[in-house]
Input
Amino acid sequence: MTRAATRRGAPHLLVIGAGMGGLAAAVTAATQGWRVTLVEKEATPGGKMRRVPAGDTVLDGGPTVFTMKWVFERLFAAAGARLDERVALRQAETIARHAWPDGSRLDLFADPARSRAAIADFAGPAEAARFETFRRDAHKIYVTLRDSYIAAQRPNPLELTRRAGVLDLTAIKPFSTMWQALGDSFRDPRLRQLFGRYATYCGSSPFQAPATLMLVAHVELEGIWLVEGGMHALARATAALAEDLDVEIRYGTAAEEILSERGRASGVRLAGGETLAADAVIFNGDAAALADGRLGPAARRAVPRMGAERRSLSAIVWTGLGTAKGLPLLHHTVCFSQAYRAEFDAVFKRGRLPDEPTVYVCAQDRGDTEAAPEQPERLYFLVNAPARADRQPFTTTEIEACWERTLALLGRCGLEIEMRPETLTATTPDVWNSLFPATGGALYGRASHGWTASFQRPGARSKLPGLYLAGGSVHPGPGVPMAALSGRLAAERLAADYPTAASTSAPRSRLAATFGGIWTA
Output
C-alpha cells in the first residue's frame, strides 16, 4: 500500500500560509500521520522569505541571516531527509563587518579567539576581556531559556520559574533593559551599540527590551551560514520536503475565512468561494490578522487584540543592482548611526523615520571575504521604520528623503553606493502591511519591551478549539529558526490534543525534539 493510500483515512489538517512556520508545521504533522493541505496566497513558498526582481535577476527581499542550523537539520531528519543534501550551506568565518562614521571598523568572527583579538585591537584589552564575560553571560541566558522557554509550549512566569529555577532566572536579568546590561558589560559606546543591535532581530529597541535578548548575540556568535541560492532556497527545499511527505500545497490560494462548527474550527473558505473541511487548522500568519477579523468572526475571538502601540519594528528595504566603492563590503555589513537613542525614539515614540538611520547592507553576491564580485552587484539595504502604515501611510517624499539620508550615512562610514535606478525597489511598511494585513507593517509581531512582553505572545493553542497558531508573531518569537520552531510546537500541541488521531495511519514514529539535544522517537 502506498503512503498516499495509507493517509486517505487519516485526519485532515489544513495549514494556512507557506511561511517557515507553516512549512515546518506541515512537515511535522505529516510525519505524525496527518493528511495535510497547505494553502498559500502567493505563487511561491517562504512568506517574508520572498524574492524581489532586479533587472534580469532576483534578490532575497526578506530575512538574510541564517542561524540555528540545527533547527532545520532536525526538522529534515524527522522526515527521513538530510538538510545538507537539500540545501547547499557554508558556515561564514566572518559573522559581520561593522563600521561607524568616525572611520572605525570591527569584524566579528565565528572563532571566538579571533573576535576577542579584533576587539582588543579595536577598543583595548580590557574591553576584550569584558567581551569574554559578555559572551559567557549571553550563553548562560541561552542555556537557561532553551529548554524551559524557547523550545517549550509557552509557559507563564510561574511555570518558567519552576522549569528554570529561581537562581537561573535571576542570572538572566529579566528586569534590566538590554541597554543597561550592556552598560555593565562594556565601556566603549560602540560595542554597546553593536551588541544592542541584536534587540532589533526581535523588532525591539535595546533601550526598552529586557537583557534576556542578549541570547540573540549568543545565537549569532555561535555561527551563521551562507545559503547557496539565497534564503528563499531554504523555503523551496522545505516545501519540497513537505511535498515528499504527500502534503498538498496549493499556491495562489488565499484563505478568506476560518470556519467553525459546534464551537471549534472545522475548515476554511477560500477567496474563490470553495470550502475545505478539516479536523484542525493551523494559521501561519500574524495573529493581528485574526484579532482584526480578517479571517472571519469565529477566528476573531481566537487571540486577544493587541494595541498598535505594542507593535514591533517595521523596515524599509531597498534592493537592486549597484556599484559599491570605498568600505569593502562582506555578505553582512552594518553601518551605525551616531544618534542611536534618537533613532529608536523617532521610531517608537514619535512614529517617524529616523533622521540618521543605522543601515544594514547585505551584499548578496559576496561571501565573508573582501573579494568583490563583478559590478554591478545585488545589494540590499535595510533601515528601521515605525509600523504605522494602516494608520498613517508613508508618502513618497518621506521614503525618498530617507533613502537620501541612508546614502549619506553610508558615505560617512566610507561606503559610496551608485544604484541603477531602473532596478531599485523600495519595500516600505505600506508594502509589508499589504502583504501581511492588520500589522501596520510590523515584521515581528509584538515588540519585546518589558519583561512580561514575551509571555503576552500567543501560544500554539488558540482560544478557538481546533485552531492552532504558528509564525513569528507567536511563541517563541520572530526570526526564521524561531518561526520553524513555532510550526513544530503547533504540530506537537495538535498531536497532544488528538492523541489517537495519527496513531492509526502514521508512516513512521512520531518524533519529538529536545532543544539542544537530539531527536527521539
The chain has 18 helices and 22 strands. Confidence is low (pLDDT under 50) at residues 504-521. Residues 89 and 235 are 14 Å apart (CA to CA). Residues 125-150 form the longest helix (26 residues).
